[in-house]
């Protein structure tokens, strides 16, 4: 769940991520192909792999910078708000003045 940047309500965001890792035990030489091959990421491993943290990092990297519902309205944009809707430029001027 993220916050929709338009209506500020919760929005469910699906994440699909495919990642390949090559685990390199700490202290072991990294082959040159580990640095050249972009099809996987080489990870130095000290002790056990923390899969939970690894997945969390991958999910965070996969999240969109801005979450929006496909269709929603800004807060307060009901039927009567449409009548007195300020022009976008007036709104921008207001924001610029910091009011
Ligand atoms: Zn929304």
What's the short story on this structure?
The chain is an alpha+beta fold and 99 residues long. The chain has helices spanning 32-36, 51-62, 79-83, 88-96; strands at 2-3, 10-11, 21-25, 41-45.
Which SSEs are present, and which pair or pack?
Blueprint: E1 2-3, E2 10-11, E3 21-25, H1 32-36, E4 41-45, H2 51-62, H3 79-83, H4 88-96
Parallel strand pairs: 3-4
Antiparallel strand pairs: 1-2
Bound molecules: zinc ion.
What does this structure look like?
- The structure is a single chain.
- The protein has 99 residues and is an alpha+beta fold.
- The chain has a domain at 2-20 and 47-96.
- Helix content is 31%, strand content 14%.
- The longest helix is centred in the middle third of the chain and has 12 residues, at 51-62.
- The radius of gyration is 23 Å and the shape is elongated.
- The two termini are 31 Å apart.
- The structure holds zinc ion.
- Residues 4, 6-7, 9, 11, 68-69, 72 line the site of zinc ion.
- The site of zinc ion has 8 residues, from loops.
